[in-house]
Amino acid sequence: MNQTTKEQQVAYQLVRAGVGDLLLIDDGTNLTAEDIAGTAPHMEGLALVVVDRLQAAHSARLPLSGDRLPDASQVLATLARTLHVPVLAIGDSDVPRSWACWTPTSH
């Protein structure tokens, strides 16, 4: 995902120091479910994916909003099954069931 040079340097230093698992945060407004699904397989030791960007109201600037939510949900559910890791998605208060969790065996 879109990391700054400083974030990449810090991550590299933590890996070299043997700190353990890393936390990757992408707060860009253009983040899509496909971006997440394309990046997640490259994360060594991935144990959980959390998406906190779902918006019930359609927003031209937020890909994970409005009528794009059903397709995004399918991408995230497929990601959970493919990588065998849970995917937790959190939405605003207007999103039905303001969160969803797909497990590796969910359909």
Question: Could you outline the blueprint of secondary structure elements for this entry?
Answer:
Layout lengths: L4 H12 L16 H7 L9 E6 L14 H15 L3 E5 L7 E4 L5
Parallel strand pairs: 1-2
Antiparallel strand pairs: 2-3
Written description of the protein model:
- The chain is an alpha+beta fold and about 110 residues long.
- It has 3 helices and 3 strands.
- The protein has helices at about 5-15, 35-40, 70-85, and strands spanning about 50-55, 85-90, 100.
- The protein has a 3-stranded mixed β-sheet with strand order 1-2-3.
- It is globular.
- It starts with a helix and ends in a 5-residue tail after the last strand.
- The model has no long low-confidence stretch (mean pLDDT about 75).
Number of strands: 3
Secondary structure tally, helices: 3
Order of helices and strands: HHEHEE
Q: Radius of gyration in whole Å, from Cα?
A: 15 Å
Summary keywords:
107 residues
Quick structural overview:
It contains three helices and three strands, in the order H-H-E-H-E-E.
